[in-house]
Specification:
Elements (H helix, E strand, L loop, with lengths): L23 H4 L1 E9 L3 H6 L6 E6 L6 E9 L2 E11 L5 E4 L8 E8 L4 E8 L2 E8 L6 H13 L7 E3 L5
Antiparallel strand pairs: 1-2, 1-8, 1-9, 2-3, 3-4, 4-5, 5-6, 6-7, 7-8
Amino acid sequence: GRRRRPPPPQSPLEKVAAQEGLSLPQLAGRWFLVGMATRCSYLAEHSHQLEATAVTVTVPDGQSLAVSTFRKLDGMCWEIRQRYLPGQAHGRFLLKGRGYGSKVDVVVGETDHSSYAIVYYQKGRSISVKLYGRTSQVSDAIVDKFEQRVRAVGLSEDVTYYFPTYG
């Protein structure tokens, strides 16, 4: 008989639940990138250069997110515009990159819409977790929650970075 291919290994993101009752209109507005956990080697090498990063989210069509990120690089402000397309389930999105295999799966894992959001990103086999706040500082309880979520997907404190609140 024909051999069956083994199922693909479950991606870490499949285990992550999207926020129940996520309201995209309430997610819209200005956010600050507060913290990030990633095995990205670039961040490890350049963590001393982290700059305060602001993000503006709009919901152009009621189902996708238009995300505009402002950050300083070499003293200049840059705007990065991205479109998060609706994924297979509510709270899950797809970010298409340029070229084959450059898609990123995005899950809004947890948010109260008014003070914080924990968002997961997966490209290929690598996963990262970002903590956004409505202000550039969030409570210790939220930071603790973020660090628990980070550990739950197999990342650790040594790959967790916090962004400066100035800039």
